[in-house]
């Protein structure tokens, strides 16, 4: 079996490579706005499934698609569209704890497997100056919740409970373990 990563995310590529997995890439072009669930687990799974539904799966392939959202006080945060969105997200996350959900669909012609993971992240209290400086960089805009734990956003983090890689966009150890079952 060969592994296809259905993602344009550079982080997901890096993480699969870090685990020594070989893969080919396909880029899903799905209209994610059509997934409107307000439950983060449902949202990431349905979105990952939507991404897999727009890609072709060969007989000998397993397709991996994934979605990541941030949830804070029952509100879901995806990628900020504007500077104002990013400001509002980082202000909300400042000085409190949020959850990052990453949901994966592994799909072949014969099966579908769901992998779900959740990591809790607590931010230090951030100053207005810190937030303004950050939202005027490129970093927030391609990331759920408007920050990157693997980049400058690391300095916002006081505590993390769970798999760090789930925050970066792929629950790597769970994915690795699942893929071993299919000899990938
Ligand atoms: C919270 C957080 C998210 N992210 C990223 C992971 C995901 O790539 C992104 C959430 O967007 P997604 O829609 O999950 O993924 P994507 O659009 O980047 O890629 P694709 O749909 O093609 O697979 O946010 C970080 O890189 N660091 C972080 O700390």
UniProtKB/TrEMBL annotation:
Subcellular locations according to the entry = Cytoplasm
Instruction: Please indicate if the UniProt record lists Hydrolase as a keyword.
Output: yes
Q: Where is the signal peptide?
A: none
Q: What class of enzyme is it?
A: hydrolase
Primary localization: cytoplasm
GO molecular function list:
dTTP diphosphatase activity; UTP diphosphatase activity
Task: Enumerate the cofactors the protein uses.
Answer: a divalent metal cation
Q: Name one GO cellular component term.
A: cytoplasm
**What's an example GO BP annotation here?**
nucleotide metabolic process
Give the protein's function. Answer: Nucleoside triphosphate pyrophosphatase that hydrolyzes dTTP and UTP. May have a dual role in cell division arrest and in preventing the incorporation of modified nucleotides into cellular nucleic acids.
- Catalytic residues of the enzyme: 67 (proton acceptor)
Q: What is the source species?
A: Jeotgalicoccus saudimassiliensis
- State which Enzyme Commission number(s) the record gives: 3.6.1.9
Q: Write out the catalysed reaction.
A: dTTP + H2O = dTMP + diphosphate + H(+); UTP + H2O = UMP + diphosphate + H(+)
NCBIfam families in alphabetical order: maf
Q: What is this protein called?
A: dTTP/UTP pyrophosphatase
């Amino acid at each position: 079996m060969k592994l296809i990563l259905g993602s344009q995310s550079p982080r997901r590529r890096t993480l699969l490579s870090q685990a020594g997995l070989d893969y080919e890439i396909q880029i899903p072009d799905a209209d994610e706005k059509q997934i409107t669930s307000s439950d983060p687990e449902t949202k990431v799974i349905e979105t990952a499934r939507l991404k897999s539904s727009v890609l072709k799966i060969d007989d000998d392939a397993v397709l991996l698609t994934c979605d990541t959202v941030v949830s804070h006080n029952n509100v879901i945060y995806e990628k900020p569209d504007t500077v104002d969105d990013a400001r509002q997200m980082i202000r909300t996350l400042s000085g409190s704890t949020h959850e990052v959900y990453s949901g994966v669909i592994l799909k072949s012609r014969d099966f579908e497997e769901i992998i779900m993971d959740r990591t809790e992240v607590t931010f230090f209290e951030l100053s207005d100056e810190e937030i303004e400086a950050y939202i005027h960089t490129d970093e927030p805009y391609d990331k759920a919740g408007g920050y990157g734990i693997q980049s400058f956003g690391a300095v916002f983090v006081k505590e993390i409970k769970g798999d760090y890689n789930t925050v970066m966009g792929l629950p790597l150890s769970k994915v690795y373990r699942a893929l071993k079952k299919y000899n990938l």
